[in-house]
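Our platform keeps sequence and structure together, in a single record for each protein. This encoding replaces a full spatial description with a residue-level series of whole-number codes. We quote a single record here, exactly as it is kept in our systems:
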Amino acid sequence: MNPLNFDIAFLRSYVAGIELGSFARAAGKVGRSTSAVSAQLKKLEEQAGLPLFRKDGRGLALTQAGEVLLGYARRLLELNDEAAVALRGVELEGWIRLGLQEDFGEALLPEVLGRFARAHPKVRIEAHVACNTALLERLAVDQLDLALLWGGAGIVGLDGYPLHQRQRIAEPAMRWVGSSSVEWQPQVGEALPLIMFDRECLFQRCATQALDRAGIAWRIAFTSPSLAGLWAAAAAGLGVTVRTGHGLPPSVRVLDEAEAGLPALPSLSLELLRAASPARPPVERLAALIIESLQAGAA
């Protein structure tokens, strides 16, 4: 029995159509006509030997076989693209000094840096996890090549940073975060217990300003020098904290503002900053991989 070999181009159109919600939009992304993409999908079903779509009102939905194939298709495309990058960048070598916020340490380090290391084994990466202020200070004295940090009005050291060295990746909303296992119940007549860093930060400032505008009393119930400490306190139900949806562990969850009686919070920018020195090819390749990963996660 001959093995079944899926066509990577067919899989790419298939995944793009599902993720974009339209195979017409997918045609533009993969650089083909809509009729060509339709033909690819038909051939993909023939390769699979099973229907991948079913009618759902006026549109189409995935069958069970289609759902199974989608997961494998994403993995096949990721491996295909990783192999292509590895071959094109086989001669890349050198050092990259990367700084990033704690929010991205657990997810970005193993996923993105792992992919980069496999594709470019001759490149060495120094990763520094720190707060905005520390990352900006390192950039200013040429101790980092790239830094992933939070942007927004009033951040010391960021407003004057050259615009051509800044790249905005996304604009996530700040969210109230509480325990996944301990139900949050606001106590009438009591100040809202807040879980915050042991130093002033953008999240604390925005949270307390929003509470003050809403006329909600608050108190600092727990402080920690690390993000892990904030997650532990929030998971235990000691109060609520404020972050974005990035990097939340299973022990905490985003709270519904209306149900919790909490005010809406603003969005902030997520930015990738480059050092003043000219970017080297390994640095630009890592930057592209970080941007791709974070924008895919925000989609």
Notes: The mean pLDDT is 85.
